[in-house]
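Sequence decides. Consider this:

===
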Amino acid sequence: MTKIQNAETYIDEGPKGWTGGKNDITRQDKGQIDPRLIAHIPGANNEQELFARRSTGRMTREEWEAFKLDLTKNGMEWPITIFKEKDGTVHVWEGNHRLVAALEMGWALAPIEVRYFGNSQRMGLVV
């Protein structure tokens, strides 16, 4: 059973015998997920270190509170985007601040998009 709710999956593994290159998206899952299930995934540029040093990441406390208020009122316009690279590396590509905010606000579900490159889905799914 998948942990992504309301999931839509797009698969393009190419013709038989073809191996996707490192920049070829070969599977894409979209839906909603409990953000606690992806909280352990590191940011692509070590954003988790930003949050370890400062609970608001790159934002001031005032910007952070305004950001969370906007999410509360309007929801997430863009999903938290996770990449699984051909070598198996998994990271949050976009949405590190949104993920931390969703966790802090206790959201049960947040929008997610998982992109698999170079048939990396064959090594197992992220969620």
Q: What stands out?
A: The mean pLDDT is 91. The CA atoms of residues 47 and 96 lie 7 Å apart. Helices lie at 47-53, 61-74, 96-104. The chain has one domain: 5-123.
